[in-house]
Design goal:
Shape: rod-shaped
Helix content: 10-25%
Strand order of the largest sheet: 1-2-3-4-5
Strand content: 5-15%
Structural class: alpha+beta
Amino acid sequence: MAGLEVLYACASGSISCPQDALVCFVHWEMIKSGYRCIGSGDEPRSTDKKSELLPVDWSSNKELYSLRYKPMDSETQLLLKAIAVDSTLIFNLMNSSSQQVTDLTVNISDHVDAGQLRTFDSVFKDGDSLSEKVKTQLLPSQDRPKGQTAERRSRSEEEEERRRRREDSDPLGIPHRHPRQGTQPHWPGPMIPPFAAGGADLDPFGTRGGGGMIVDPLRSGYPRSGFDPSSGIPDILPPGAVPPGARFDPFGPIRQRRPGPDPDHMPPPGYDDMFM
């Protein structure tokens, strides 16, 4: 907290309660982030000027604090208000141009020791945590100086990289569902060697010269009877049910229809006599 001690010493004459010390702390965080205080109150004054110090009348109202700020390299005005509500101090920061408002609620006793207001070394408690809250919750990201924004982005990228490394090194971790970035490996297709031997299984219609099976009974090289399943099988398959050149596995005896009635269609004599 370099610089805060000097600021606190300059403003010590106006610090008489814990909320005064807390406003002084938040003011210094604004200064560190690249802003300068131009005065107190809601309306501009002829005496306004950019300064790292607090205005003379900054703590005249212990229930409502109003301070105005501008970036060092811009004329955009920000209005900081701190409202005391019971044991808390509610900060509101409004950008006068965009009307964007951010807020932060702080429990005073968590960060200020009311009995040590005259001792800088012990007046603030858990200052690092309070500083982080001011930067991440009160200061709007688009109004932060570019150096601060770039630094935070760099830290976020480093944390993300560390998290990915931990996940990749955990053998029990659940893998990502989103695709990895970068060049994807090239996998040869099923029709490209060395997969050409089994590629025909993925081409049942024989469009690439295969027959469906590695050993197709219709293309095994042995003499065939001339049976063509694409012309249909009487009483079994109509013509065209099997595409030309497609693999066909016969599912029953292939024979010509017998002339006359099928003996299996007529019951034997006395089939309903249980004593036969």
